[in-house]
Design goal:
Blueprint (H helix, E strand, L loop, with lengths): L16 H16 L3 H8 L17 E10 L3 E4 L11 E13 L4 E13 L8 H5 L4 E10 L4 E3 L8 E6 L6 E6 L7 E4 L2 E2 L18 E2 L15 E10 L4 E19 L2 E6 L11 E14 L3
Antiparallel strand pairs: 1-15, 2-15, 3-13, 4-12, 4-15, 5-6, 5-9, 5-13, 7-8, 8-14, 10-11, 13-14
Length: 297
């Protein structure tokens, strides 16, 4: 509240010397107290903010929670199953939210993960080994609504739906997501393409040189690891019902590839027949997650 009010004067009454002098005294008193703290406290509508560093007051920002949910490294090993693919790997701990929401409330989730890839390729630059540079891993969030268990957030699927066509191995069905089912995915390339300069320009031919490197660069070799790098992801959703968000967690799976069939684009999870003898891995060394629930417009 302001330190100077206007209750000394009443409309339609005579302005007296005493009233006017009192107002000047109010100004002098307030001016003498003006500091950076006073400007901050009196110049901002404080009820819009909380008194803690989070800013959570319940007026606009209903909930803010952030945590390092993974501090001990977790490893995702590439899918070896033919059909159906393996289950996703749960990464770290749950981010406890425990906040009621109503229709129109807005959910914002942010995460960062420190990751590295393992396994280059064994033998010559050919076949499945070469194709590792087209493959990638996926991380995505799951939520627990009303204490009913963890499922994929709206707009995200788990890459385990039968897509109805034959996979790359020519035998088994392909499993994965349509492009509209990857709303919350963080994709992480397993290898980066390299070329020693001998591949002709303006061509779609595969590189004729080194061909494949680790995520962070350097020569590829069987069993080698890339350096740790940081990846990010986010998710936005406006609730359409009333309930409680109990918690969030991050999961992952792979390896995956982009695919096209019958006029449709997909992200498919590779089956065991497509992988080389030594399973590729994604090592996740740390995850930080933040969740905000805000009132709608």
């Amino acid at each position: 509240m302001s330190l100077i009010d206007n209750n000394n004067f009443t409309r339609a009454t005579k302005l007296t010397e005493t009233d006017l002098n009192q107002k000047f005294q109010d100004v002098e008193t307030a001016t003498g107290q003006l500091t950076e703290a006073n400007v901050r406290d009196q110049g901002v509508d404080l009820p819009q903010f909380g008194t803690t560093t989070s800013g959570q007051s319940g007026i606009i920002l209903k909930k803010l929670v952030t945590s390092n949910v993974l501090s001990v490294a977790a490893t995702i090993t590439s899918n070896d199953n033919a059909t159906p693919p393996q289950n996703e790997t749960v990464l770290g701990n749950v981010l406890a939210v425990n906040q009621a929401f109503v229709s129109g409330d807005i959910l914002r989730v942010y995460w960062s993960a420190k990751v590295k890839t393992e396994f280059g390729y064994a033998g010559a630059f050919a076949g499945a080994a070469k194709d590792f540079r087209y493959q990638f891993w996926a991380l995505w969030p799951q939520w627990n609504i009303g204490g009913t268990g963890y499922t994929e957030v709206t707009g995200q699927s788990n890459f385990k739906a039968n897509l109805g066509y034959t996979a790359y191995d020519g035998v088994n069905d392909a499993y994965g997501n349509t492009m509209a089912q990857n709303y919350a995915s963080t994709f992480i390339p397993h290898r980066e393409p390299m070329d020693d300069g001998t591949t002709p320009v303006n061509t779609t031919a595969d590189p004729t040189g080194a061909g494949v490197v680790r995520l962070s660069g350097g020569a590829a070799a069987s069993g080698k690891s890339g350096a740790i790098t940081t990846v990010y992801g986010s998710y936005y959703f406006k609730f359409t019902t009333n309930n409680t968000l109990t918690g969030l967690r991050l999961v992952g799976n792979g390896l995956m590839s982009a695919a096209h069939d019958g006029g449709n684009n997909y992200v498919v999870i590779n089956n065991g027949a497509y992988n080389a003898a030594t399973d590729p891995k994604l090592v996740v060394n740390g995850i930080n997650m933040t969740c905000m629930i805000m009132r709608g417009e």
